[in-house]
């Protein structure tokens, strides 16, 4: 925040091998803060799929150059046949300080658009935390499975038609 006014988020979507070292560090730092620390969930975040993904990064930069770039949101975009038969969006995370600002909705809107730009319009499947079904429904996803336990958290598969 800058004098109470949110700084604009700059979106980038890059394949893993084009991420700079500091991008990878910030990405894994944000995912660890959300999924491991906040949710008290011990799991193997680095699951071997990052290298096959495009990574959507939403960051803010201090305008006067006095501070580092702050990663506020991220998502992992995977082509069809990697995590699911359909293309998928996963590892969706927003920084705790950015919640309640609408950034999560911006992130999902960007993720859906970027995925279609990369691989064409198509169905998208996600493994959503069950308590976030209403959030994802606002982006066109419908529940497509019974609840299942993954890493100690209830999840459901959700599908967004092409």
Structure characterization notes:
The chain has 162 residues and is α+β, with helices and mostly antiparallel strands. It has a domain at 10-120: Gcn5-related N-acetyltransferase (GNAT) (Aminopeptidase, 3-Layer(aba) Sandwich), CATH 3.40.630.30. Helix content is 25%, strand content 30%. Strands 1, 2, 3, 4, 5, 6, 7 and 8 form an eight-stranded mixed beta sheet that branches. The chain is globular and about 45 Å long.
Concise account of the structure shown:
The protein is α+β, with helices and mostly antiparallel strands and 162 residues long. Helices cover 25% and strands 30% of the residues.
CATH topology tier name of the domain at 10-120 = Aminopeptidase
* CATH architecture designation of the domain at 10-120: 3-Layer(aba) Sandwich
Helix content: 10-25%
Strand content: 25-35%
DSSP strand tally: 8
Radius of gyration equals 16 Å
What's the oligomerization state? single chain
Shape: globular
- In the CATH scheme, the class of the domain at 10-120 would be Alpha Beta
Cα(first) to Cα(last) distance is 37 Å
Report the major sheet. 8 strands, mixed
Q: In DSSP terms, counting alpha (H) and pi (I) runs of 4 or more, how many helices?
A: 3
Report the average pLDDT across residues: 91
User: Helices and strands, in N-to-C order?
Assistant: EHEEEHEHEEE
Low-confidence stretches: none
Look at the helices and sheets and give the structural class.
Answer: alpha+beta
User: Superfamily at the CATH H level of the domain at 10-120?
Assistant: Gcn5-related N-acetyltransferase (GNAT)
């Amino acid at each position: 925040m800058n004098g109470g006014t949110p700084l604009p988020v700059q979106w980038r979507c890059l394949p893993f091998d084009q991420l700079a070292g500091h991008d990878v560090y910030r990405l894994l730092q944000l995912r660890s803060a959300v999924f491991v620390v906040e949710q008290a969930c011990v799991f193997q975040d680095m699951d071997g799929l990052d290298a096959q993904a495009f990574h959507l990064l939403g960051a803010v930069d201090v305008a006067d150059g006095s501070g580092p770039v702050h990663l506020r949101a991220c998502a992992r975009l995977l082509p069809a046949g990697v995590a699911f038969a359909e293309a998928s969006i996963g590892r969706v995370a927003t920084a705790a300080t950015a919640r309640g600002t609408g950034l999560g909705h911006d992130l999902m809107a960007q993720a859906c658009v970027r995925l279609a730009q990369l691989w064409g319009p198509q169905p998208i499947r996600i493994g959503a935390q069950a308590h976030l079904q209403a959030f994802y429904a606002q982006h066109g996803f419908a529940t497509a499975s019974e609840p299942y336990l993954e890493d100690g958290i209830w999840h459901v598969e959700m599908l967004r038609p092409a």
